[in-house]
């Protein structure tokens, strides 16, 4: 339903110079997907969101929403069917009670007042902010503000919701509540969520769609779990013996590993080759008294993403 076809976006600078923020990005997002759009600073995330909101136009390529090109004729209808929340900007009016801002947004989208009131009540309860609805927005904590903005984005039950850095500065507990809320809303209404974030802890929570970009290029698109499974990072083990060991007894093995460290009664070793691990572990069990063996392979999504970003040109998973 959301399709980017080789989208290029350039920012013109002075003296005939230009920055190419997106260098031919393609992806597809199905209805009802929760899609995380991840990338380091300057990767092109905000540019993508601005293109999706119709604020910017691509210099090349196509943006299709439900098979309609995002051009003038379709844009008016499209904008009514989307919701937006931008982490560091608020839809709330600073000096009036939050509930008044929310009701106003409901009115702007022509949501019947009764329906709008019911939705505000329901979502505020789910997000645990009922007690702040009568406070002016300027007195809200950051987390309460982000949650209130989430209600603004959803009050007209849009088909697609764009969330730009929704968890910036939000504490762990609020992040959890917001995420559970998004998941529930997605399941109930089949709403499509397109979320830009730096927050890998969020992405790690669900096996959802992930698009990874860097320097205006897509470097991964697929499920989070697939990325974890397909991407091979070296395995790492530690063996503990019942007494101090002599490194000279292990010299035959040392060169087979990427890393091989001994200290007192322990050896830790790292390799890309699973069979080398098996061979070495068998050898230790046969010839020594092994007290403990620990796998210390770190398959954290964050490390994988850092590693992929470094090897930008290599391809993993589905593209
Ligand atoms: N208005 C602009 N004029 C010129 N260059 C711009 C403009 N906006 C963005 N850029 C450049 O385009 C590239 C992509 O920027 P963009 O803001 O899309 O990245 P981002 O992934 O959202 O970064 P961040 O995580 O830091 O917000 C960067 O090199 C940035 O300097």
TrEMBL record:
One Pfam family, short name: ABC_tran
A GO MF term: ATP hydrolysis activity
Keywords: ATP-binding, Nucleotide-binding, Transport
Occurrences of domain ABC transporter (ranges): 2-240
Record SMART domains: AAA (SM00382)
Domain of life of the source: Bacteria
Family: Belongs to the ABC transporter superfamily.
Protein name stated in the entry: ABC-type uncharacterized transport system, ATPase component
Organism in which the protein naturally occurs: Marinitoga piezophila (strain DSM 14283 / JCM 11233 / KA3)
